[in-house]
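FORM 12-B: Structure-to-Sequence Request
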């Protein structure tokens, strides 16, 4: 278990001390994101004070995760597992899409970044290729990194044919990454919520490792591939987000940008798929789901009824328009995310006790 702690600690330190270096470089070259402003037709919360804040901070998170994970394996002398190689692939691939989006926002000063269709195509490519590869490369026991069965706290009897499985993973990855991206609208909001989710997956993966069928086959053992290495990866993600949050909390000295939000969303989706807890993500990523539903509800209400459900969507901007301070919104939303994560962990453990 020491390697889980090493991974998280190294990632935290790299993000904590590496982010200011990145900030200095971005400021020197004027790499800051365009800030959306209010218009007569479309009011928007006043964020003019954020003008000039450097973006692309997700680069620091990604580098911290890679370094933390690598150092842990150098110390342990073990080779990276197939499961985490695939998780890294999805995280880096989606982070690359986010980087391209941030590039346009910074260099072209286009607040909306790349076109939605282009972003969705890129997400589909990495999601589908990840899903296909995850059903290959069985280990000595014949277990592949992912299963074609839909999972809740473990695989269910519902096994999808390959075509439907690819579509399912594509939808899951796309929904998760865009949910994190929508949540990243206030200083530290998405980063802090992600820390709680990655912390939960660290605990789940450690538990699955301790009760793995690889050690002893018994009723209720977990047939998850590489659970300990997934814990090392989840710990690195949590540590990197904590280190970055030091600089990203209000008032943010740097934004993670789409580079960070899409990479974080990809890592969360990968952990859900590879740990066989896909539907449990409803709870472990509860805040991300709530914010996404607020956007869906806003659009649907306006198209069907001609009225908006909220003053503005996503939900955190609704409370900004009501006059809540940014810090108040973020802290209360973190509390909601914490409650969702505790419920998710409770369901995970309850299934084990019942079994």
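FORM 12-B RESPONSE
SEQUENCE OUT:
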């Amino acid at each position: 278990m020491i390697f889980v702690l090493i991974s998280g600690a190294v990632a935290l330190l790299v993000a904590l001390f590496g982010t200011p270096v990145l900030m200095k470089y971005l400021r020197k070259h004027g790499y800051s994101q365009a800030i959306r402003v209010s218009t007569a037709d479309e009011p928007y919360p006043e964020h003019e004070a954020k003008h000039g804040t450097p973006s692309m901070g997700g680069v620091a998170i990604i580098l911290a995760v890679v370094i933390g994970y690598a150092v842990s394996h150098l110390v342990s002398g073990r080779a990276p597992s197939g499961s985490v190689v695939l998780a890294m692939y999805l995280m880096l691939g989606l982070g690359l899409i986010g980087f391209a989006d941030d590039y346009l926002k910074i260099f072209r000063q286009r607040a909306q970044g790349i076109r939605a269709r282009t972003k969705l195509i890129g997400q589909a490519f990495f999601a589908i290729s990840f899903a296909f590869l995850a059903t290959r490369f069985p280990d000595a026991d014949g277990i592949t990194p992912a299963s074609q069965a839909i999972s809740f706290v473990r695989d269910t009897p519902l096994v999808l044919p390959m075509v439907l499985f690819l579509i399912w993973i594509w939808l899951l990855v796309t929904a998760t990454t865009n949910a994190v991206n929508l949540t990243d609208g206030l200083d530290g909001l998405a980063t802090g919520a992600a820390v709680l989710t990655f912390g939960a997956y660290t605990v789940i993966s450690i538990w699955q490792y301790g009760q793995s069928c690889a050690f002893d086959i018994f009723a209720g053992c977990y047939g998850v591939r590489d659970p300990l290495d997934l814990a090392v990866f989840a710990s690195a993600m949590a540590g990197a987000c904590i280190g970055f949050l030091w600089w990203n909390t209000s008032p943010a000295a740097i934004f993670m940008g789409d580079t960070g939000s899409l990479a974080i969303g990809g890592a969360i989706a990968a952990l859900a798929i590879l740990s066989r807890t896909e539907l449990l993500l409803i709870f472990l990523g509860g805040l991300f789901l709530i914010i996404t539903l607020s956007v869906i509800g806003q659009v649907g209400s306006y198209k069907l009824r001609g009225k908006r459900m909220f003053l503005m969507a996503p939900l955190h901007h609704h409370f900004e328009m009501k006059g809540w301070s940014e810090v108040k919104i973020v802290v209360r939303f973190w509390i909601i995310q914490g409650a969702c994560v505790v419920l998710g962990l409770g369901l995970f453990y309850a299934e084990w006790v019942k079994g």
